């Protein structure tokens, strides 16, 4: 997160006021949810970044930063949530790991939240 970039976008006359208000509202809602659920902020990024779908999956496996991000999350024992990025999960060897949740099933959000509340998935340290 870059506060200077955020301020620059808010002041940019090319960005519609409606878009600015929506972005601020979404940002405040996510921040409130993070506080309410008492989640570490890194876990929220691990949840939001990989929810991309089939088109995103295809482009993400070719993107070194995306691959590195997911591998770092795994190496740092973060809770990881995935949805529709099976190729990326396979490439980074996180598929089916402890603390890695596929969000396409029922009740999986609560499973991810339980992992994320702990900050780290220490059980993965022995893998």
Beta-strand share of residues: under 5%
What is the arithmetic mean of pLDDT?
Answer: 76
Order of strands across the main sheet: 1-2
What is the first-to-last residue Cα distance? 31 Å
Structural class, from helix and strand content? mainly alpha
Structure description:
The mean pLDDT is about 75. This protein folds into two domains: about 1-35; about 40-125, no CATH class. The two termini are about 30 Å apart. It is about 60% helix and about 5% strand. It has a two-stranded parallel sheet. The protein has about 130 residues and is mainly α. The protein is built from seven helices and two strands; from the N terminus they run H-H-H-H-H-E-H-E-H.
Entry summary:
This protein has seven helices and two strands. The protein is mainly alpha-helical and 127 residues long.
């Amino acid at each position: 997160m870059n506060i200077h970039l955020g301020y620059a976008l808010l002041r940019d006359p090319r960005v519609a006021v409606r878009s600015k208000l929506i972005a601020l509202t979404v940002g405040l809602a996510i921040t409130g949810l993070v506080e309410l659920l008492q989640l570490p902020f890194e876990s929220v990024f691990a949840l939001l970044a990989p929810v991309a779908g089939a088109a995103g999956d295809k482009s993400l496996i070719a993107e070194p930063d995306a691959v590195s991000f997911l591998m770092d999350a795994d190496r740092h024992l973060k809770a990881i949530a995935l949805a529709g990025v099976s190729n990326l999960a396979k490439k980074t060897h996180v598929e089916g790991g402890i603390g890695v949740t596929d969000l396409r099933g029922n009740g999986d959000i609560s499973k991810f939240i339980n992992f994320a509340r702990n900050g780290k998935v220490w059980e993965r340290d022995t893998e």
